[in-house]
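CO-FOLDING WORKSHEET

Operator: S.A.
Ligand of interest: S-adenosylmethionine
Run index: 367
Mode: holo prediction, single chain
Checklist:
[x] sequence pasted
[x] SMILES validated
[ ] output reviewed
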Amino acid sequence: MEELRDRTVWKSDPHTQVKHLVYRHYLQCWMGKILQRFPEATIVDAFSGPGIYTDGPPGSPVVVAKTFLEHTAYQRFGRLNLVCLEERADRVEELQRQFAKLPRSPQLQVTVQPPGTFAEQQPRLSALAHRGRAETPVLWLVDPFDLKSAPFSLIRQCLAGRRDEVLFTLFTNELHRFCQRENFDKTMTPYFGGDHWRAAVAERRAGSRKEAFAAAYQQGLKSQDLFTGSFGIKISNQSARYHLILATHSDAGLKCWAPVTWKLDSYSGQGASADTADALSLFDEASVVDRLDVALRAHAGTEQRWETLSSQAARLNHMDKHLRQVLDNLAVQGLAFRVDPVRARSAWPEGCTVRFYAPGDVADEAS
Ligand SMILES: C[S@@+](CC[C@H](N)C(=O)[O-])C[C@H]1O[C@@H](n2cnc3c(N)ncnc32)[C@H](O)[C@@H]1O
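OUTPUT RECEIVED:
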């Protein structure tokens, strides 16, 4: 591990590959939505690394640039500013070499900052990223090597603009291993922005404790009125090494997150490990949409617009296709009806209105 931190360029590992897959899927969707709506947006890769691994794969800043240049809707995109920060001069130099190999595009402006640390540079990066307009969409990639260089206060700072989003690497393995060490609370509390992490320590099993830390971090974000998604980066049957946490100001921001996690994990959309996967396979496939089923049943006695239901599904990390699946199931039981439009090509078109009933409303009074 020490060696890995010392060399300019180091070897990739399967966890990095999964992390980059999540980045790629998320960026594909984010770029498709944001860059076709806004004339300009920024991605800040705040812990960019050297842009390459010794065994060949590209590093995150190159992954971002390539996802942009290879995007099928690229011709219709506004401009993307990619701002990179890296602490070490040798890695900054290597990153510049890697960018020099990429094709140039007038729509992609890459700036590699002089070597610097995130804590010191964040205000300057933020000004650069927003380009004088607070409403410029900015996606921050925050992927450090340790817990100390990205405390919660800095993450909050990255979310100051109303279209700022953060994709953050949460070190759940370290949290799990060191949380009971003497004095480690002095690291944990600023990392979480409070001591709500303490509840997770009670979890005994590694997997559940790591999930509890991820949930605690998300709770901290939610208490600031942010929307959040999470994905455990794990290989085969091991528990997560770290989690990727998305923080965004609107539930529309989550619309790109659910499909990513479902694509990478067909079990639960949450980065299931072998043990959670086993537990799920005891039930039929529909069990994964249980939370959504419960949430929709709570609408009994009311009419809801499609947009509301779709946002609600996104907050529960479900896609519209899951929403339609649950509505189908409720409709069969007489608990959900499309009341508008009367005629449509499909059962639950976008823009429709749905009326919900309780099982008691359906019960045959004569029986
Ligand atoms: C986990 S690596 C980044 C890997 C890269 N995001 C990727 O996915 O290919 C973390 C990088 O952040 C750099 N770094 C460490 N502390 C930093 C700080 N406080 N500010 C900026 N960069 C830092 C390290 O030198 C290292 O290259």
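REVIEW:
The CA atoms of residues 44 and 172 lie 23 Å apart.
The longest strand covers residues 164-170.
[x] output reviewed
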